[in-house]
Write a structure and sequence with these properties.
By secondary structure, the chain is an alpha/beta fold. About 45% of the residues lie in helices and about 15% in strands. Helix 6 packs across helix 7 and helix 6 packs across helix 11. The mean pLDDT is about 95. Bound molecules: pyridoxal-5'-phosphate (PLP). The site of pyridoxal-5'-phosphate (PLP) has 13 residues, from helix 6.
Length: about 450
């Protein structure tokens, strides 16, 4: 039943055919089915005798897959989509079928070596020193939490070393534009969040970070600043260099959340926006967003992984064999233990295509974003809300309110034209498109925009 008998071999071939079919087909955008409708179509699937591979695969192909939207549709412009290369997607199958765990060097050395090579590429793009490394985690959310846990642990240790008691409260400084996962991490860690003001360009700067650190309540210690390299809503890169100055002055950990935006480190046309990123203590970049990797793949990289190990290594009698100085254990650097080697599909695609192909693909998405910005500026009935730093274009349709945007998005989805969702900007309803898919064209955007004409 579990080995490769004749039945299972036939099943593997059918599954591989399903995968090939999926790659060959243009995915469709559809509205989510009603809960009862999907349940009725699919019926009972978990049964004592099992459905057999053909029936289970049929239910998946006919009902389950079409009930979800593939994020690599070229007109999936909501949130931050994902657009994995064929190489990275298909290699996910290989990683899963290898049954190799990515937690420790002891039994996962090959996987860890490959992940480290991919991680090194990201560290080099950011200008981090030799020795920088970390762990591929499930997403920006886990990455931000793990980095902040490390930062607080480091701050706690230095207080202890200085003979100081615990502070009355720990705090992290960030901005209103910081991703919600940082608030979530703060709740998990039971720490305070101090908001620093954005400048008129919606950018966090060193001046306001320094003011926020100075203005902390008595007895509160700021253990980290979170700067964003590409805000999710409008794609702004904070002023990393001046923020690094503010952190250095106070000996505060600088975490850069580049979950969405830092994929563009590979693009020469915008590389200078990230100046100062090389001064961070930790950085999160999601290859599953803008670096063409399948879910779930986020790179968490530390300038120096040592404090991460102090914070995260789990100790148990049966785990001691895994800890050895010469061994690099990804799991010692994040809030995880058992883990799939989720960086390996990303590594495979990088190894296959080379880094120039990544540079060109990301530059292409940026050029489509610039052309989209031009379409907005050229249209009387549209208003550009902010000059794009990266590949998010935020705009308003003159005369529209929140209900109009929602109705427009619903209609686009019902027609299968595009996947968009409304947002807010400076307190008012607005639209955003986020372009990360190299297959998205200017024509896609132009066609969507014709439906906005008066
Ligand atoms: C998407 C995003 C996150 C969260 O990442 P997940 O991979 O969804 O957990 C965090 N920060 C920023 C800036 C993001 O864009």
């Amino acid at each position: 039943m579990f080995g490769l008998d004749a039945d299972n071999e036939a099943m593997v071939r059918k599954v591989v055919d399903q995968v090939l079919g999926r790659f060959a087909e243009q995915p469709e955008i559809r509205q989510a089915p009603r809960v009862d409708e999907l349940a009725a179509n699919v019926g009972e699937t978990i049964t004592p005798a099992g459905l057999g591979p053909d029936e289970a695969l049929r239910l998946y192909t006919e009902y389950l897959a079409p009930a979800s939207v593939a994020s690599d549709h070229p007109r999936y412009l909501a949130f931050v989509a994902g657009a994995p290369t064929t190489a990275s997607s298909v290699f996910d199958l290989v990683v899963s079928s290898s049954a190799q765990c990515g937690a420790f060097w002891l039994d996962g050395a090959g996987m860890v070596h490959a992940e480290n090579a991919a991680m090194r590429w990201i560290a080099d793009l950011a200008g981090l020193p030799a020795g920088a490394n970390g762990c591929f985690v499930t997403g920006g959310t886990t990455g931000n939490l793990s980095a902040l846990v490390t930062a607080r642990d480091a701050a706690r240790r230095s207080r202890q070393a200085a003979g100081l008691d615990r502070p009355k409260a720990w705090a992290v400084v960030c901005a209103d534009s910081t991703h919600s996962s940082v608030d979530s991490a703060a709740r998990v860690m039971d720490v305070e969040v101090i908001r620093a003001e954005l400048n008129p360009e919606h950018r966090l700067t060193g001046i306001s970070v320094a003011a926020a650190i100075d203005g902390r309540p008595d007895g509160t210690e700021v253990f980290a600043v979170v700067a964003t390299a590409g805000t999710t809503n409008i794609g702004i890169v904070d002023d990393l260099d001046s923020i690094a100055d503010a952190c250095n002055g106070g000996g505060v950990w600088l975490h850069v959340d580049g979950a969405y935006g830092a994929g563009a480190l590979v693009a020469p046309s915008v590389r200078d926006r990230f100046n100062g990123i090389e001064r961070c203590d930790s950085l999160v970049v999601d290859p599953h967003k803008w670096l063409l990797s399948p879910f779930d793949c986020a790179a968490l990289v530390y300038r120096d992984p040592t404090p991460a190990r102090l914070a995260h290594t789990q100790h148990a009698s049966y785990l001691d064999a895994t800890i050895e100085d010469a061994f690099y254990n990804p799991s010692d650097h994040a809030h995880v233990l058992t883990r799939r080697a989720r960086g390996v599909p990303f590594w495979f695609s990088l190894a296959v295509h080379g880094t120039d192909a990544y540079r060109d693909a990301i530059e292409h998405t940026l050029s489509v974003a610039r052309a989209t910005r031009d379409l907005v500026v050229a249209a009387e009935h549209l208003e550009l809300l902010i000059e794009p730093d990266l590949s998010v274009v935020a705009f308003r349709r003159r005369g529209w309110g929140a209900d109009d945007y929602q109705a427009w998005c619903d209609q686009l989805m019902a027609n299968g034209t595009a996947m968009l969702t409304p947002t807010t900007f400076e307190g008012g309803p607005a639209m955003r498109v986020c372009i990360i898919n190299p297959r998205t064209t200017v024509d896609d955007l132009a066609e969507i925009f014709t439906t906005l004409e008066p």
